[in-house]
Every structure is written in structure tokens, then in C-alpha cells.
Amino acid sequence: MSIKTVVIGSPLAGTSVLFSILDVLASVGRDWEMLHGMPIKVSAFEVSLRTVDGAPYWDVNGRKITPDARLDEEPAPDLIIVPDMHFDPGGGFPETFQLIANWITAAHTRGAIVTSVCSGAVLLGGAGLLDGKEATTHWGYAEMLGRNFPKVKVCRERILVPVGEGHRVVTAGGASAWAD
């Protein structure tokens, strides 16, 4: 049985992290086995890139990205990964994130594990999943996370922070910390 995984796409998402995550998860059950002469398996992860509306979009660097589906399409995820997002850390919670945050909250309530990379922790803050908990994010967004979500205990010095029952919420610091 594969782990149904949704990677959140957005015009504000960093493409290098987004596609690195998709690539690494797709290789599980294939690359190691191939290098060791073992039979190749079906990946342990069924990964899809999803957006609010499922429509193609242009990322922050001008690349056209075509998602696999809308957030609300089946199958419901077991795992959600929110990549880094590029927005002004001096401002408030971007209004464009609210629909994504609401969907994340509902999916987590249904049992999904929710993770974030870098500034993606801001969406977990907006989803209310970090209230009363420790979290980390990119150092450039740490003050913004704490200012907009004062119930969050921001741990700037941490690289990886798993919290909650069963550690079903995980925040990773900078853009490359997701690999940990």
C-alpha cells in the first residue's frame, strides 16, 4: 500500500524544493534497488502535485507548472508537504494562502501527517496546527511567523521540529532542511 502524498503547489512556491521533493519520493523503491541489482518495486509513495484549482500556473521564477489535480480531489492524502513559499516576510499572512490553510486543517483532522519546508511553516501557522506548539522555519520568516501566530513557539535554531500526537506535524527550517 502506497502513502498517498500531496505536495502543495502555488505560484509562490519555490520550484527547486517542489521538484526535488517530487523526484526523491518517486525514486523510493527504485533507485536503491537498481543500484544493488535488486528487483525494482513500486514506489512507497503515490505523489501528486496539487493546487487550489488544479490549473497550470507560472511560478515565482517564470516557469510554467502543471499540477496533477486540485487539492480537494481524491484520494485524500496520508501525507501533505508544504514547500517553501516566496512572499514578503514583513507583511501579514497572505490572503491567497487561506484556502490552502483551510484544506490543510481539514486533511489533518482526517488523519493526514502535515509537513512544511522553510517558509511553508507559515501555512501551518495559518491552519492553526502550530498553536501552542514549537515550530521552525527559515530564519527570514521566523519573526513573521511569531508575529502573525503568537501562540506558536518559534525555535529559529532548530532544523527539524516534530510536534503533536504521533508527531503528525513536522516543520523543517531552511529550504534544504526538508531532506532531513
Furnish the topology, listing elements before pairings.
Blueprint: E1 3-8, H1 15-27, H2 31-35, E2 45-51, E3 57-58, E4 64-65, E5 69-70, E6 79-82, H3 98-109, E7 113-117, H4 121-126, E8 134-135, H5 139-148, E9 153-154, E10 160-163, E11 169-172
Parallel strand pairs: 1-2, 1-6, 2-5, 6-7, 7-11, 8-9
Antiparallel strand pairs: 3-4, 10-11
Short description:
The mean pLDDT is 93. By secondary structure, the protein is α/β, with parallel strands linked by helices.
Structural description of this entry:
Helix content is about 25%, strand content about 20%. The protein is α/β, with parallel strands linked by helices. The chain is globular and about 50 Å long.
Major beta sheet summary:
7 strands, mixed
Q: Helix/strand/pairing class, anyone?
A: alpha/beta
Q: Which strands sit side by side, in order, in the main sheet?
A: 5-2-1-6-7-11-10
| Gross CATH architecture | 3-Layer(aba) Sandwich
Q: What global shape is seen?
A: globular
Low-confidence stretches: none
Distance between the termini: 24 Å
Radius of gyration, taken over Cα atoms and rounded to an integer in Å: 16 Å
Mean pLDDT, rounded to whole units? 93
Indicate the percent of residues in helices.
25-40%
CATH superfamily: Class I glutamine amidotransferase (GATase) domain
How many DSSP H or I helices? 5
